[in-house]
Predict the structure.
Amino acid sequence: MNSMKIIGPLNGMTIIDLSHRLPGPLCGKILTDLGARVIKIEDHIFQDPFLSGLFAQFDPSFVSWYENLNAGKEILRFDFNSPIDQEKIHQLVIHSDAVIMGLPNKTREKCRISDRELTLNKALVVIELLSSKTEKKSMHDLNAMAMTGLLSLYVAGKNEKIIDPPFLPIAGISFGHKAATDLLANYISATKTMKTLFVKTYLDEVTRDLLGIFWPEKDRQSGRTQFLHNGLYPSYSIYQTKDLKYVALAAVEEKFWNRFCEVFQIPSSLDRFYNLDKSVFSSISDKIHSKTSQEILSLIKNEDLCLSLID
């Protein structure tokens, strides 16, 4: 899966990606996009599960995820049980600048890339993406959202026996981004000490620390579960058009809100808006639903009011 080399701020940096599925490969993709040479190493039989394993069998879209997450990387597949290939892996790793580690200890020992064997007098970062520092059970994105309490915000007010999970694995995405940040920050430190730095980052901690700040503790304790971003205000919501398409309205600033009301001839005011006059939702819905998506696009063609058709 080779592509044209991107020249970026990390040009000249070589990173070995020994991870699979989402967070590790996303970390590698971010670094690839910044110009690093990222080499993804997989077993020639047991490839990334998104490509040929259980995930790909569940949902073929995971193959597309794999292709997108690893675009721009060099993909090398070795026989992890072959002494010749083990040596190749060893050489690639010790001559790299950073490693996204996702191999079990037994395989690391076979390839001579354990922590002991990677303790070198050179700038090298070995980062591991782990589930939790304290919780011993395995977890995925949805588990992390549940265990940190954040998923309760998503299910609040719903009274269905079965609730579809959020589409985007937001905890896993945040985890991959945080890993890339941790890798680069520690590489700066490693270049100063010329020593290997071993870094661990945890899914549950990242979920709590990065996403938890958007649902402050005082709001959790008060039981508040509705905010601007999940439907509290009529100016930030999704409305259906006459031809059964949808538009996203995000006119939260006064100038956008006022112009939106003028263009769509909606009797409103900031006073009604901020006092949560629920009839405003209905007024907007009636106006939007009375027009087709193309009529709305024509109406807002030369307007700047934060209204977008959902393609």
